[in-house]
Amino acid sequence: MSKINLLGFTLERLKSEFLRNGFTILDAKRVFPWIHTKLARSFDVMSDVPLRVRENLKEKFSLDRPECLVLQKSVDGTQKALLKLEDGNYVETVLIPEETRATVCVSSQIGCAIGCKFCHTGTQRFVRNLSSSEIISQIFFWKDVFGKPITNVVFMGMGEPLLNFENLSDVLKLLLDEKAHNFSRTKITISTSGIVGDALIELAKFRVKLAISLHASNDEKRSCIMPINKKYDIKTLFKAAREYLRNSGTDRVTFEYLLLKGVNDEDSDATELSKLLRSIPCKVNLIVYNDWPGSPFVGSGRNRADEFSRILLSKGVRAIIRKSRGDDILAACGQLKTQASAVRADKEAGIKK
Ligand code: SAH
Ligand code: SF4
Prior knowledge:
Structural class: alpha/beta
Number of domains: 2
CATH class of the largest domain: Alpha Beta
CATH superfamily of the largest domain: Aldolase class I
Number of helices: 11
Strand order of the largest sheet: 3-4-5-6-9-10-11-12-13-14
Bound molecules: S-adenosyl-L-homocysteine, iron/sulfur cluster
Radius of gyration: 21 Å
CATH topology of the largest domain: TIM Barrel
Distance between the termini: 35 Å
Largest sheet: 10 strands, mixed
């Protein structure tokens, strides 16, 4: 029987799991900080836990990090890791070191069911949700590898975080817990394609930053590139976003807007966008499109992006052009797609030979 990985267990869950397996609440209280603040990789080092208990813990539980199959480093310092999960699936995670901060970009699912037309991950079939241990193990992985403090976490890797809310919720509890990873809520951003409903309402309780992938200023265009818009149209989405601001007490929403040549980057799109955004405190991240093999889109050039942002600014909308990091290693947004299919194809090719 495979051992239960404890990395993603909140203290409450750890206590009940321990009780079910014949350990005590005190054991859980002692083990918890070893896992999250001392980043212990084995039970052996937990010097305040009785030796006999440690031996028994080893039988049932693990603190294993996922195995790293490929670690790529971009010329700009961004690093991308391909991690192998216990069931043989793969997931990618990215570290973006900058002068004053280091951001980890976390994946929440294997593949994605939303199927946005511009997204490399969206072209991969949805496999499954990641467990809370698998999500937070990406933070553990970078803490181990990087050796310096991780300051920010963005849920902008593979998958739609709000469709894996139960596990996301445990991870947020651990990241925000001052007795665990102790991140400030202002340093955590959840990015969603615009899933409206209970998960978003619950998320507001964590008071973390919300980013919404908007990418178009009217329903017709948005539905073409993001099929989720047919379920939750812009009006519904904005109502939910305003409610999020009210309930979370956060001051603004970030809208992500990809500039796609001839699709959503005309002057009239910028004007329409500025009108739409009047109804909500926000800022806009204009994202330069990251190309991927077989993509049906072309990104707008730098001049178009500058002009688009100038129009927004002239209408009073805070807009910045987000510089792309790690695009030489396909680590930039929307380019994360596990090499699982490639690995599988290699294997099949090997068998056929
Ligand atoms: N599923 C969530 C979070 C992951 S995607 C979401 O969609 O918000 C993170 C960001 O990358 C989103 O804003 C997404 O729209 C953007 N993105 C997707 N494909 C991209 C591409 N090819 N180039 C640049 N950004 C992309
Ligand atoms: Fe999924 Fe986000 Fe990619 Fe859309 S942009 S397919 S929601 S990961």
